[in-house]
Design goal:
By secondary structure, the chain is an alpha+beta fold. The chain folds into 4 domains: 1-120, no CATH class; 161-392, Chloramphenicol acetyltransferase-like domain (Chloramphenicol Acetyltransferase); 410-514, TPP helical domain (Helix Hairpins, Orthogonal Bundle); 523-670, Thiamin diphosphate (ThDP)-binding fold, Pyr/PP domains (Rossmann fold), CATH 3.40.50. The chain has helices at residues 11-23, 30-38, 42-52, 153-165, 180-195, 203-217, 270-286, 291-294, 340-346, 365-379, 385-392, 410-430, 479-490, 504-514, 523-546, 561-574, 589-595, 601-608, 656-670; strands at residues 70-71, 84-85, 170-178, 224-228, 231-235, 242-244, 246-249, 255-258, 261-262, 299-302, 322-326, 351-359, 465-467, 476-478, 579-582, 629-634, 640-645. The strands form 6 sheets. The chain has a 6-stranded mixed beta sheet. It has a 3-stranded mixed beta sheet with strand order 15-17-16.
Amino acid sequence: MSSGQDFGANDWLVEEMYERYQIDPSSVPAEWVTYFQNNPQAAATSAPASQSSPGAGVPPTPKPVTPPNISIQTSTPAQAAPVAAAPVAPPVAAAPVAAPAPIAAAPVIPAPVQSQPVLREVAATPATPAQAVVKPAPTLATPGAATMEPLRGVAGRVVQSMEASLTVPTATSVRAVPAKLMIDNRIVINNHLTRGRGGKVSFTHLIAYAMIKSIKAMPEMNAFFGELDGKPALGRPEHINLGIAIDLAKPDGTRQLLVPSIKGCEEMDFGQFWVAYEEIVKKARTGTLTVEDYAGTTVSLTNPGTIGTVHSVPRLVQGQGLIMGVGAMDYPAEFHGASESTLARMAISKVLTLTSTYDHRVIQGAQSGDFLRRINELLLGAEGFYDEIFTALRIPYEPIRWAADFEVTKDSEIDKTARVQQLIASYRTWGHLMADIDPLVYRQRTHPDLDVQTHGLTLWDLDREFATGGFGGKPFLPLRKILGLLRDSYCRSIGTEYMHISEPEEREWFQQNLEKKFEKVDRDEQLRILRKLNSAEAFETFLQTKFVGQKRFSLEGGEAVIPLADAIISAAAERGLDEVCIGMPHRGRLNMLANIAGKSHGQIFQEFQGHYAENQVHGSGDVKYHLGTEGVFTAASGATTKIYLAANPSHLEAVNPVLEGIVRAKQDRLNTKGAYS
């Protein structure tokens, strides 16, 4: 073998032979012994090459054969030289020539070996990357150039106010407040407003109202510094006039800060304060604020948290002793990487930072700290804070209460799932007791079996998922959605009681049709409901105007029964029922006769004037309220069915058994085999 050879892809064989040679020289053929003796650096130089070859795997172990006397020539990538067999001869030192000389060996019987080209990989010269185009930095002729424009109007007054505020010695107290309870109760409030009067309560509304209640309890916070006969004096305003910092964006992109005030806040409940707050903000946005709206501010509130500011120390202007800043509401920074499910499982609440900046000449640090402590307690429900808000907005449910979370273990998770199932069963059984079915009397409705705390659950469980057993159409739901669906199904303006029914199939039918999200009817159906309401209202108004003083047992206040009956009978007609029979008292009978049963208005008006048909009984004049009728009802889809309104001539206390007898007789006359039991 010649020295300095490159074995290419066969370098692994050289390495293996060299390792065997180092362990036991007699374990390798004599040709390899000679090669390693003449080329001690051969294996060392081939190892890096084999290691650097990409994708090189562990080669198979070659069969132990006696290598022939071969001569391997270094070949170029374009042409590989074949390996020639030669007689084995004693080793001879290679002569220093350009081409390697074959090594002679002792004459032996050569074994035929198939020649194999040896290829060498030549690394390509890496291309030089293109040089980036370097643009020269611009040279400024006047680097200090600037323009000045005078600050006039509101901007100029802001400058004067801020410069004057530098003369006020202020200090600031800071407190972090958990926002979990405020968030959950605000959801309940806004959901109720969405179903009714509309509008939305913001976090600033709640915080501002807590601030007002705290100042009422601590009047020393509503103070200012002044001078009396050239001497320092303490001023005490008679009213709490709360200034609201409103940041407005102008069309040109600049921003403007306005601080109008709400006057006499101490005499307002939350509903009045909410309306006054929205009115002052509306005036600010429409540019209709007056001088009186800016004057007389005693304390101020600013909420830079709406734009993400976490902590704020606002400036305190002269004439005021307190300004409170509200920071952004977010989870603590160390939990920003946690998922929503992890936060719910660990009972981590969002927090907001409140700052109390006060005039240290008239308010002390201990007072400011106690002031923030009181606000913290109010936002956690102390002193019936949320009960008062719910009452002012006429929300017929109790607010969510603050409670510590229970320790979560595997056993408690199973136990809580069972408690959620029990809560669902309680709403199905007793949910109608919390239904808001009396529009004339307001009260907060509650029932012990429908309270989550009775079932060992708290507000921290609202965002945790529990197995529902198929409730709501999903195997798992957060407790918040479970409670929302239960209250929408059983505790709104309609109460449903059906769990006393003994047939499971019938109870399941009620559950499938009640426990689903409300679907808004289409526009055509809305117009039909409106027409029915208008017909009922117009009928009663005409009778009251035309027949003054006559008994008519008006339906006023209950006109909604007309579109309700229309929807029920329309569904019966579309499902192919033979007939619909109705029993009812005097109240609303005339309206039902005219707008549902199809009795003509002219005939009813004739009866008011005392004109009856010849075959009708003449009486005291109230006989028209006893009469029934028969007719054909036509639904909006065109489906028809017979309709029968039973007469009530005997002033029956209960018409139900009479109507049941009438219906059974009609069923028997139809004589449909097996249809009725």
